[in-house]
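Please describe the entry underneath.
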Amino acid sequence: MIRAGSIILTLMLAGCSAVGKIELPSEAKVTEAALPQSRSFGAARPFPPARSNANIAADFLDLHFELESGTPLPVFTRFETPVTVRLTGAPSPTMQADLDRVLSRLRNEAGIDIQQVTDGSANITIEAVTQRQIQRVLPQAACFVVPNAESLAEYQRDRRKPKSSWTSLRTRERLAIFVPNDVSPQEIRDCLNEELAQALGPLNDLYRLPDSVFNDDNFHTALTGFDMLILRAAYAPELRSGMTRTEVAQVIPGVIARLNPRGARLPVRPETRTPREWIDAVQTAVGNGSSLRRMRALHRAMRIGQEQGWTDQRRAYPHYLKGRMGQFDNPDESQRQYAVALQYLRSTPGTEVHQAHVITQMAAYALTRGAGPEMLPEIDAAIETMQRAENAALLATLLLLKSEALKQAGRPEAARAVRLDSLGWARYAFGSELVVRALEQNIALRNP
């Protein structure tokens, strides 16, 4: 995820930047009981797919016939029977409720026959383990899915055998998902969304997708309308495991047209594949290297995007990252980079979530200059976007920014109500202990 005084509040927790500190009264002791109850999302309201059916059909092929590494997959695979799911290991207290919710969405929005079982074998086993156990196997992974296994121990034993290779798969019968049980509720929910979607459908991620969890930019944290359409199409009767790319290409336009009539009215947008050089540059920029190396990588990504003639979120992304990298040392330049990113995003359908991330950074800067009230309309629009996108971390951050803007506007009672609302979302996003620690370290509240 992402990372000048009185404001950014939980932006430190949300991975954004800290503008400074708000001092707590010395006698104030924040306790768990003083915090509002953890909030949860109601009925899902995902944004619908934002592109034409012709574009979506091309996306379907690239999502299903390549791995993230670029390795081609020889045939299309899916489950050919009703899908059973079993939760094992040591689940966290919130995991079952979030699993229930995503399974319900998969049934209702993607039309997949999927049910949870409590014992015996299952098509998909979700094992709740510690973050450390996951990173012993895959150091950079938050969670992951593998074929032909039902436990982390089995996968570790057989990971170099053909049974563990996605390229050897011809149909899906038994998969395992490994999810951490010692991270925040939202992180667990995000893992359940993305890994269940990959267990059922695409194994690839595409940077060109603006409105999908199947994108390594990680702006989307819960399954979108586009994602549900892709999954519904994957289980259409016109398809079956073992079909080649050519065979799927012959039928998928008709499938998408039947499932998404709205997409026939949207204009076809020119799309280009994302060069591996750009992907490598972006991954270097968000990695752990030196600031100089990361900045050089960002400039390389900007150059490639310009050469490709992009005007979509891929063109905006390096500018957003450069803004974040420089906001301590050169906040004015960072604002210029955010403005450039926003210019490209506003001309690209399906980028409401990306725009909300940029607005969060720009609003924080405006607050430091006493201009918070001027940002209230944009903050409110971003809050609505984050509610629909179900990103509690950014929602909590935006609500705290709104609270501070209301204070600057001379509306303290409204500010207090918004601030309390933000803490309920923060408890879900970051975990109660983190929220309390943030408060105790003077990041969040004045006069709690």
The chain has two domains: 11-41+272-440, 53-265.
